[in-house]
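tool=predict chain=A
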Amino acid sequence: MGSSSGSRTQAGLSSLVVVLLAAGALDAAALEVIISTDVSCIDNGTIMDADGGPAIPSAHCEYSVNRTGIFRRVGNATADAAANAGFRSVGVLATAHAALDTNLPNNFGGRASARAELRDVFIMDARQANGTPVLAGHLSVNLATTGLVMLTGDGQADLSEATLQYTIVVGGGGMTDLVQSFLGEPPQPVTAILPPIVVPWQAGLPIDIVMSAFASVDANLTFTGWVDVSADFGSTLRWLGISDVVDANGLPVASFTALSPDGADWGSFAPVPIPGAGVLLASALGILGWSVRARRRE
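tool=predict ok
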């Protein structure tokens, strides 16, 4: 599994593609937020505990079995999911854990997924130095990602996987990327200042924004073993701001605003620090143990 999974991960890391969406497809209204979560704990392929749903920001399940004797099955499984979205950022988190001691073949473990999306529009108002309105041109949208995908376990967890995906659409252009991790691979950081998205604009016409993130994990054991899996986009797919606003001739404008119908400012530029992979790894390791510790305190 190790050699083939490595090639799949590299394919996922290089899957940057252009997404097109017709301008004006969204209604010029206030910021719209869509979130959903789904978790399930599974024993022999049967869902034993489940949680989550549309508009539910977090979900948790846990299940344990303790059957001794000739047909031994002793184990536990947990799964957690969380999603959040707000002005300029979306985040998702999915984690699962499973451990099993058995002498029977199984499909045992936990699954979790989370989705977050925000939608809005903004309208450009650009001016020359003398106050003359600029009628059309191009602008650059700046974005950043911070996240980590990781999977650890033994040989019986070879059907487990973690997936993290993001998509950004602005006006007539955008990008998407998919990162996956499989057993035997190192953690996959998803941490970068993304290439700017260059977007045409016209004065008075709304420009659509769609930012979405999706995390999915499957901690699956076929026999005695253990597995921890996490897809963490918990804090950032983040809009940093608009830069390089030019007119139709490619000349920089003197000033501009990019406001939504309800007054939200999409134009101001506010870079955010991007932590190193070591910080993300420590964070993910802490998250994997969070739900179990919380339950024990309760």
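The CA atoms of residues 167 and 294 lie 32 Å apart. Residues 2-297 form one domain.
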